[in-house]
Fold this sequence. Notes:
By secondary structure, the protein is of the alpha/beta class. It has 6 helices and 14 strands. Helix 2 runs parallel beside helix 3 and helix 5 (184-196) packs parallel to helix 6 (229-235).
Amino acid sequence: MALSQGDAGAIDPSAKLAPVRILHVSDLHIEEGFSEVPAGELLNKRLVGLMSLWLKRRRLWRDAKPKVAALAKAASAWDVDLVIATGDFTALGTARELEIAKEVVRPLFDRPLGAVCLPGNHDLYVRDGGLERFEATFADALHDDLGGRAFPRVRFVGETIAIVTFESARPNPEFWLSSGRVPEAQLEALHALGRSGVLGDRRVFLATHYAPFVEDGGPDHARHGLENAEALVEALRPFGEAIFLHGHVHRRYHVRVPHSDLWFFCAGSSTMQRREGFWIFDVDGREVRATPGRFVDGKPTLEPEHAVFLR
Ligand SMILES: [Fe+2]
Ligand SMILES: [Fe+2]
């Protein structure tokens, strides 16, 4: 049985069986403002190419705005404490789009423990200061509890959870390329963080935009995938059985691979026509219940029958 946000008691009577509930969304692709991008920002062959490519696909996200509003309502109904958004808020990451995306996600990010986010490749297309503009726009969701001012960042949730975010998106030189790469310095920083003991015995969530693996456990294809996925998995080894959240692949799934202890969860695109996806994580120390969600008749709906239990 699937339960939607309108059902009293939300997921089930024991609803929030754990002290902390996290909603993972991704690839919201809010296209509002896309057509208002000033011509000056498009005087660049790459952006024109991207824009035409995106115009062909835009119908897939035409309802992104009301869907984000529906997710915000559901987050309240489901008592979500915190939201994690793994990038691709926009189409081209122009100033106007980011401004609009910020307004659209405000109710969704307005949770008791706030929100955590990071940029996707679509948020970084404008090379001149794309990352700085993104960081200025979503500053409230980019706070680092260890005092750092750049990725990787750490957010502590009480004494029991740590959320570690890092970058994997970058502007690509050619518009038909959408591959990503975790910068070497961040691989080193992640490895050092995992070994440092700073996170104690907290349940660790690792979050970035790109997918190290698709649902069959293999790599994503070269033009779209994460170039240094294997190096990343190696760097993350000290984190043990951490929960790895990502998007970029517009399909919701979870996967494990034989050579890593990590649990990989892809939210897909939470707003893409007929493919909307998201996850709810109920976290109680080491015990975690991951419940997948999708849209049914325009409503965010959970599928408790497909929940995954992590221990
Ligand atoms: Fe995307
Ligand atoms: Fe992406």
